[in-house]
Amino acid sequence: MAKNGISDYRAFHDLTKRLLTVGGLWPYSNSNILYRLLPYIQIFLNLAMALVVFGFVLEHFSNVAVVTRGLSSMTSFASAILKVVCLIRKHKEITELHKNLDPYFEKLLENEKMLEHILKKVNIFRLLSGVLTLTVFAVIAFQIIAPLIFIINCKVHHVEIKKYPLIYPGNYPWNIPTSGFLYLAHFTLETFGTFALFFVTTSVDSLFTLYSFQIIGQLREMSYYITHIDSDDDSGKYIFHSCIIQYQKLIKCVNLMEAIYGPVVLWMMGTNAIVLCALLFQISKMKTITIIQGFMFTSYVILKLVQTFMYAWSGSCLTEESENYKDAVYSSNWQGKKPFMVLIVMCLSQRPLAITACNFSIVSLRMFISVVNTTISYFFLLQTLDSEQ
């Protein structure tokens, strides 16, 4: 069981590290100039695509059905830009957070008696990260392949193509040739922009769940030691003192996560509802849906739901484990021992751990329910506006 937990954690950790490394976002202690330039390349590619799709949205702003086609792509690119900017601006914070969590958790994995406790539910964290990565890859793969399939299909049936399609509905400030080298250059730019979106989305979201799980692991370690205090007053005092200091460090880690991810979570709560609403509205307006379109729409809906659920569930697990730690402290072997009473009060007086999005909302499963409810409300609003046109 413990070996399976370690392999799940290693796969989860290594996948997140590889994805972040490609985008230049993993907090290495020593990195060269080229690696530090990678995040700015990510910003450029995502910004270019966001502006192109934004031009399309402005051009067709009066048509609700057409606007929703570009709205989901535009908000996705804008979300990727926000994520990279937050990680760049908070580079010191994320480096400090990484130093406090990652090496300590590696040491915990060396303690065999702790593995069963600290690796609970690690398979779910790994599953969520894996599902997110696969669904994002499926969506971008079909977005890139769809225009190619259209072109090949026209060539096979000898149908003349007046204008070759690109990956996204966009409006460039210059005329794009229907084919040839310049068309290929634009298609290549959109392809690179799509892969930039893939690496930013999967890596930054997975990193949030990874750090949340590492904090949860430390809370479980503290709960284990406190519930196994023997009658020796000196060893008990040392354990309580250590837990108080360690808990203070975890409070600082949670504050760092709020500073890094607060704007990201707040933005995600609004935009994911908009994207899901736009997808549902597009599906409702389509008279016929091909297999490729159906698969792409389904993957996109699953992607946004999993993405929102990852943040919400990780935040709920962290808060729940913090409450379990408080219960462990209160249930420890301290009755009738006056030296422990002061330490017990100090432990219980420390504030619970909960991640908030810019002091606006606690990151929990309630946030996920709120996004779903908002999606339904926006969907009915769009239907009302479309019927009035």
TrEMBL record:
InterPro entries: 7tm6_olfct_rcpt. One of its GO terms (biological process) is signal transduction. The keyword Secreted does not apply. The keyword Cell membrane applies. It is a multi-pass membrane protein. Its main location: membrane. One of its GO terms (molecular function) is odorant binding. The chain crosses the membrane at residues 37-58, 70-88, 124-152, 172-189, 196-216, 264-283, 295-313, 367-385. It holds the Pfam family 7tm_6. Keywords: Cell membrane, Membrane, Olfaction, Receptor, Sensory transduction, Transducer, Transmembrane, Transmembrane helix. GO terms for cellular component: plasma membrane. It comes from the Eukaryota. It is found in: Cell membrane. Belongs to the insect chemoreceptor superfamily. Heteromeric odorant receptor channel (TC 1.A.69) family. This is Odorant receptor. The lineage of its organism: Eukaryota, Metazoa, Ecdysozoa, Arthropoda, Hexapoda.
